[in-house]
Amino acid sequence: AAMTIILGLESSCDETAAALVTADGRILAHRLATQEEAHRPYGGVVPEIAARAHVEALAPLIEAALTDADMTLDQVDVIAATAGPGLIGGVMVGLVTAKALAHAAGKPLIAVNHLEGHALSPRLSDRTLQFPYLLLLVSGGHCQILLVRGPGDYARLATTIDDAAGEAFDKTAKLLGLGYPGGPQVEKAAAQGNPKAVPLPRPLLGTAEPHFSFAGLKSAVMRAVQSGQYSKPDIAASFQQAVIDCLIDRTRRALTQADGMTALVVAGGVAANQAIRAALEQLAADHGLPFVAPPLWLCTDNAAMIAWAGAERFAAGLIDDLTVPARPRWPL
Ligand code: KG4
Ligand code: ZN
To answer: Which family is annotated (predicted)?
Structure first.
């Protein structure tokens, strides 16, 4: 029989995306439309603008992905879409579209947790990666350490008690007047600065539970900006180093609490940061573990990771009913 083909849809934040992936991890097509320009004047994602933009972008992206792969909807075997967590208006657009396609074409539907998309994405880029692995999931909305045992089978070892790592990058960018989205801008500025120039706190460093906290760091960055004593690159570099120190200390702690891991893995938008990747790679080497990080385009939001999570869930028999709800909050 022909290889199973999964259509994946993503619309939980400010990227609209559609992708076609095979059950053995070949990416046949992936299309993405970013809404960055629409949200830029507001310095962050406006939910109402996002939902409307998803409505306009999604159908043409699906058609473009099918055209790229030289396929029709009939040849797709499984329809997968992000069903949460995220901005509810956008999630509903993607999920309702997937339901309509699944119903019309008579194909199974898979409701994917966006976090599971990120969590399994390293297995799409590295087909040798085996369960269980320790995952640092760092995005705009989440900062977690997960034990990934299989599709639908996760243990959360740590989370943030306030802001997510990407949120801290975005807020720091705003404070420094670097624009939106903040992460890449802060990384660029940090490359020109001295990471030791500004004394900043490392919240929760050394505590037994490997949780995160970034709110205090954000306040300290605000005070550093207001003091007028430091250059933007120095603040950016010092901030990035403080985040790295926290991520490394907390992940090192989690490694001592998780036995039998095959690898240390990072995923989510913040994993696009080269300095963070380098520090994690060193940590993995110190523990004699392989380090796995998806390519940059697969770290930030995309539909290939949703299609792939759909592929993994389909293979495990985890199919959803057409009544499955969109969920703004949905812990893994
Ligand atoms: O996973 P993602 O695309 O969307 C969410 O699910 O949140 O992550 C977006 C987040 C944003 O906060 C963005 O500023 C951050 O990832 N990010 C970065 C970098 N690229 C994106 N943070 C630090 N350094 C980067 N190079
Ligand atoms: Zn994401």
So the answer is: Belongs to the KAE1 / TsaD family.
Task: State whether 155 and 183 are in the same domain.
Answer: yes
Extract the annotated binding site for substrate: 137-141, 170, 183, 187, 273
Which two three-digit tokens encode residue 39? 């949200």
Task: For residue 23, give its domain range.
Answer: 5-119+299-315
User: Is 124 a domain residue?
Assistant: no
CA 322 to chain centre: 26
Q: 30, 38, 33: which is closest to 8 by C-alpha? A: 30
User: What is the residue-averaged pLDDT of the chain?
Assistant: 96
pTM: 0.95
- 40 with 324: CB under 8 angstroms? no
- Domain tally, the chain: 2
Q: Contact, 185 vs 175, CB < 8 A?
A: no
First-to-final CA distance of the chain: 33
CA 138 – ligand 2 centroid, Å = 9
Q: Is 156 in contact with 332 (CB distance < 8 Å)?
A: yes
The residue whose CA is least distant from atom 23 of ligand 1 is 183
Q: List all residues 6 or more positions away from 226 whose beta carbon is below 8 Å from its beta carbon.
A: none
Low-confidence ranges of the chain (pLDDT < 70): 1
Q: Which helix (H) or strand (E) holds 38?
A: helix 36-39
User: Where residue 37 sits, what CATH number does that domain have?
Assistant: 3.30.420.40
